[in-house]
Amino acid sequence: MKRLRSTKNMTAAAVFIVFSLFLFLSSAPAADLASTLAENYLSKTPSTAVDPAMTLEQAYKVQEQFIAKISKDYGKVVGYKAGLTNPDVQKTFGVTAPVRGTLLKKMLLKSGAEIPAQFGARPLSEGDLILRVSSAKINKAKTPDEALKYIDAAIPFIELPDLVFDKSVKINGIALVTVNVAARYGIVGKPIRVKATPEWNDRLKNFTLQILNAKDEVEIEGKGSSLLNHPLNVVLWIRDSLKAEGKKLKKGDLLSLGTITKLVPTKPGTTVKAKYIGLDPKGPVEISVRFK
User: Is the dihedral angle over the CA atoms 249, 112, 223, 263 positive or is it negative?
Assistant: First the structure.
């Protein structure tokens, strides 16, 4: 009987050791990849570090470690971002749903900022929109109309993403997730107060965003409806994607909702302006960034 009990104990111990070894070996490559990507990101060096066999779940684990490493330079978490919110773009990147990244405090710059055109390994600019969470009650919202009750501001936003990867790398949605969905910087305007009314529901869906050059000529144009047909649908998607990982939105979280206008490479000596028409009841709003 003692021998049987001893054998069972040894078997249990062996299983525990094998399981622990499996966890160690499976997490080690993720940690190595996250470290390499973070080093490339912080040094603004185009990366070739990709794992073609990686799953989306594994990519989010890499992202978590990646964020932990870059947060020493970019500060605490202030919100989240959605990427690939357009179905056509999803097909291009080989995914069937949006992807989520995290916004850090020092990523956000005020309108009028001047920064190097080469602010990242592969810097770009795009028109975007941020909505600010006013209450943790948004975690229980069942519809876009309910979610609107817990949004207190719309914030004009020119996102300045960094694709990080070398041009020789074919970037898919999974690779994009590992580098925090390309979050690097973003230009924010003054918050516009939002109310839970049918009028605001329409404003969020139907506003027009124009990207202007230094001569105030319209170069690109997009609508709020390009964000999963309505910006509030993206809010609920971000909420649900966090919930799947046991996380929740909280008061003050900033939610970057994705591409309204196409991605454009940055050029030295240029100014990019974003003009929001039909968003603020007081009239058109502009924000800008200067690339040196």
Answer: negative
Extract the tokens encoding 276.
Answer: 């929001």
What pLDDT shows up at residue 11? Answer: 52
Q: Which residues of the chain have pLDDT under 50?
A: 4, 8, 10, 12-27
Q: Please choose, from the candidates 204, 223, 211, the residue with its C-alpha nearest in 3D space to the C-alpha of residue 132.
A: 204
Residue of 186, 228, 263 whose CA lies nearest to 239? 228
Q: What is the pLDDT of residue 29?
A: 65
Query: Look-up: residue for tokens 């990080």?
Result: 164
- For each of the domains in the chain, give its residue range(s) and CATH number, in order of start: 71-291 (3.90.850.10)
**Could you give the CA distance from residue 175 to residue 277 in angstroms, rounded to a whole number?**
34
- C-alpha 285/C-alpha 263 separation (Å) is 21
The pLDDT of residue 269 is 96
Beta bridge partners of 113: 289
Give Cα separations from 177 to 13, 82, 138, 218, 256 (angstroms): 37, 10, 25, 31, 15
Instruction: Report DSSP state, residue 37.
Output: H
